[in-house]
C-alpha cells in the first residue's frame, strides 16, 4: 500500500475542512439598465461617484445593515440603496458593499441605473426615486439541481417554514430579517432566511416575500433542496446547509446598555455563549478532522505491520468502513457535531473520499487531481468505495443497500454552486 500517498490524500481532506470554515459571498446577479446613459464628465457621474463612495463607510450601516440616500438635484439626482443580509456583522457588511461598489462601477460604466447582488449584500442605484417604496421587480432566481428524496414532504415542510419566516421578517423592526431551521428528516434540515429592506411597511414586505416565494415555487422544480429568490425590496433563500450566522452577528452593538426587546423574526444573541459557540463550531471540526486523520493513519500503519506476521482474523473490522457500509458513517463523528452542525454531509463526504483513497486496487484510488476536484466541487458524484485494503474479508453482501446516510450524502452533492439561473 502506498502510505505517503495516503497521507497526502488526508492532508487534502484536512485542508478542505479548514476551507469550510471560511465562507465567501457568492455573486448572484448584475443588471445594468438600458433606460439611460450618462457621460463620464457629467454632473450625474460626479453625484453617482460621490454617493457610491460614501456607502461602505456610512454610519447608516451600523444599526441595520441598510443604506438609503440620495445626492444632487433633479435631473442629476442619484438615489442608492444598499442592503446586507440581516445576520451579517457590520465590518463584513461594509466590506461586501465596498466590493459591490467597485464591481458595479466596472460592470455598468455609464448606465444611470443598475443593481448588483451577492449572497451577503446587494446594491441598487438609479436616477429615479427608489427610496422608501416597495418594488417587487424581479432581480434573480437561482436553484439547486438536486431534488429532495421525497419532494412532496419536502415542499410541505418548506412551505410552512417560508410562511412563518415571511410573517416574522415583515413584522421585524430595525432589521426586517428572519432566519430559522427545521428538521426535514432525522438527518437533514432546511435552513432559510427572508428579508426586506427596512424602509417598507409590514404589509409591503409580506407582499414582496409572497411574490418572491410564489415566483420561485412556480418556476423552480418542486422538491429542489435549495433556492434563492431576489426582488428589488426583498430576498428569500433556503438551503440544506447552514449559510447564515446563527450567532451574535445579528445584533448591532447596542448604543445603550439596556437590553433591547426581542424583535420578532430576528435571531438574537442570548448571552455571551454565542461567541464561544462560534469558536467551538470552528475548532471542533478541525480538531476532530486532525484526530480522525491521525487515528486512521496510525491504524493503517499498525495493521500493515501486523499483516506481515499474522494471517488476518475474520473478526477484525475496520470501523470506518464498517460504519460506512452500514450507512452509518456519521457514527464516526463526534456527537456534539452530529447534533449541532450543518456540516455533517461535508464530513461524510470527506470520509467517503478518504475511503476511496484506501482502495485495495491502486488503480481505483483517485488521483491527486481528481481528489482536488472532488473536494472542491459538490456537483461531482463520488464512486462508491469497495473494501479498503486493510479490511479483512467477511461475508457481508457487497450490494449493500443505500441507507438514509448515503442519501444524505447524495443530496448534499449540491451544496455550494450548482444552480440554474433564470433571468427575465
Ligand atoms: C448606453 O450605453 C450602452 C453601452 O455602454 C449601449 O449599449 C446602450 O445602447 C446605451 N443606451 C442608450 C439609451 O444610449
Ligand atoms: C466632456 O468631455 C469631453 C472630452 O472628453 C468634451 O468634449 C465634452 O465637452 C465634455 N462635456 C462636458 C459637459 O463638460
Ligand atoms: C474598498 O476597496 C478598495 C479597493 O478594492 C480598498 O482600497 C478600500 O480600502 C476598501 N475600503 C473599505 C472601507 O473596505
Ligand atoms: C429533479 O426532478 C425533476 C422533475 O421533478 C427532474 O426534471 C430533474 O432531472 C431532477 N433532478 C435530478 C438531479 O435528479
Ligand atoms: C431536530 O433534530 C435534532 C437532532 O438532529 C433534535 O435535537 C431536535 O430536537 C429536532 N428539532 C425538532 C423541532 O424536532
Ligand atoms: C431610509 O430608511 C429608513 C428606515 O431604515 C427610513 O426611516 C428613512 O425614512 C429612509 N430614508 C429615506 C430618504 O427614504
TrEMBL record:
Range of residues in the leader sequence: 1-23
Region feature (Disordered): 246-271
TM stretches of this protein: 279-300
Keywords (A to Z) from UniProt: Membrane, Repeat, Signal, Transmembrane, Transmembrane helix
Domain of life: Eukaryota
InterPro entries on file: GNK2, GNK2_sf
Annotated ranges, domain Gnk2-homologous: 26-130, 136-243
Biased composition annotated in UniProt, kind: Pro residues: 251-263
Pfam families: Stress-antifung
Protein name from the UniProt record: Gnk2-homologous domain-containing protein
